[in-house]
Each structure stands twice: as structure tokens, then as C-alpha cells.
Amino acid sequence: MAVCVRRFIRASGPWALREVGNTVYTGAMAKVMISVPDDLLFRIDQHAHRCSKTRSGLLRELAERELERQDRNRAARIEELLGEPIPRGGDSAELIREDRDR
């Protein structure tokens, strides 16, 4: 059985309304469903409450922080694998002057 999902924009700009199925979304924000063990969800909700954040806000912040950390680690690993840059040619302007003055 094929499922048809309608997508359209009712207005333009960052606060455009987008209809997907029976749900209307505002702005460029996606909604997702995830499966989380009850004990972890309880801990997330407790932490969000202590920080005066919503569950979604806390999860978004944690995801952004983790992805940024992975990006930094990946960049550091690439630099580690490549090592220090090897000087090639030195000061080209100085080499041209020396060659010209001969």
C-alpha cells in the first residue's frame, strides 16, 4: 500500500507553514520520534528540569555538543596523521631575487 505525503509551503520566509500528512510544522524544524529506555528518559527529564530547559532543547544541545566534539576529534586525528607541514621551497620571493642577482 502506497502512502502519500503532501508537502507544501503556505507562506515564505523562516516561519513558513509546512504540512506533512496531518501535522503542520512551523519554520525549518523537523520533528522526530526516537526510542529511549525509560530510565534514560527519566534522567534526561530530570536534567532538563534542573537546567530549566525543555526535553527537546536539552537533547538538541547535547547532540550539537557531541557532533562538534566529534568534528574536533576528527580534525585533530587528521592533523596527527599528516604531521607537521614539510617546508617546500622556502621563501620563493627570496629565491627569485637570488637567482636574478646572479
Weakly predicted, low-confidence segments:
1-11
Give the domain tally: 2
Helix content: 40-55%
Radius of gyration: 26 Å
Strand content: 5-15%
List the secondary-structure elements in sequence, H or E.
Answer: EEEHHH
Secondary structural class: mainly alpha
Principal-axis shape equals elongated
Number of strands: 3
Instruction: Report the end-to-end length measured between terminal Cα atoms.
Output: 83 Å
Largest sheet entry: 3 strands, antiparallel
Number of helical elements: 3
Order of strands, main sheet, comes to 1-2-3
Output mean pLDDT: 80
Question: Describe it for me?
Answer:
With 102 residues, the protein is mainly alpha-helical. The chain folds into two domains: 1-31, no CATH class; 36-83. Helix content is 50%, strand content 11%. It is built from three helices and three strands; from the N terminus they run βββααα. The protein has a three-stranded antiparallel beta sheet, with no helix packed on it. α1 packs across α2 (55-82). The longest helix has 28 residues, at 55-82. The protein is elongated, with a radius of gyration of 26 Å.
Q: What is this entry, summarized?
A:
By secondary structure, the chain is mainly α. It has helices at residues 38-50, 55-82, 92-101; strands at residues 7-9, 17-20, 23-26.
Characteristic key phrases:
102 residues, mainly alpha, 3-stranded antiparallel β-sheet, 3 helices, elongated
Walk me through the topology.
Blueprint: E1 7-9, E2 17-20, E3 23-26, H1 38-50, H2 55-82, H3 92-101
Antiparallel strand pairs: 1-2, 2-3
